[in-house]
From TrEMBL:
InterPro entries listed in its UniProt record: Nucleotide-bd_a/b_plait_sf, Ribosomal_uL23-like, Ribosomal_uL23_N
GO biological process: translation
Name this polypeptide is given: Large ribosomal subunit protein uL23 N-terminal domain-containing protein
Taxonomy of the source species: Eukaryota, Viridiplantae, Streptophyta, Embryophyta, Tracheophyta
Domain Large ribosomal subunit protein uL23 N-terminal: 24-75
Signal peptide, first to last residue: 1-19
Amino acid sequence: MRNVLAAMVLISFACHVVTKKADPKVQANKTSKAVKAGASTIKKKAKKIRTSVTFHRPKTLQKERNPKYLRISAPPRNKLDHYQILKYTLTTESGMKKI
């Protein structure tokens, strides 16, 4: 867990060092335009509805599968092999003509 947090801190630090801040005047103009446009452009974050009074920590760990053995012992058999396919339908008249 500590390694993950350390990596995230390093990545965020690197991003802050590399990125260049915009000109304050340009940023102010952009903000004023957004405010003048009205409240329709600004979306409020929906409040999370809590359905329980007890807090449960979310389970976020997802490990890769590491099977000890195969769950199927043999590959599936081909059920439509050459014995199953009928060449001639022997009991019908059209089948009798082909023999």
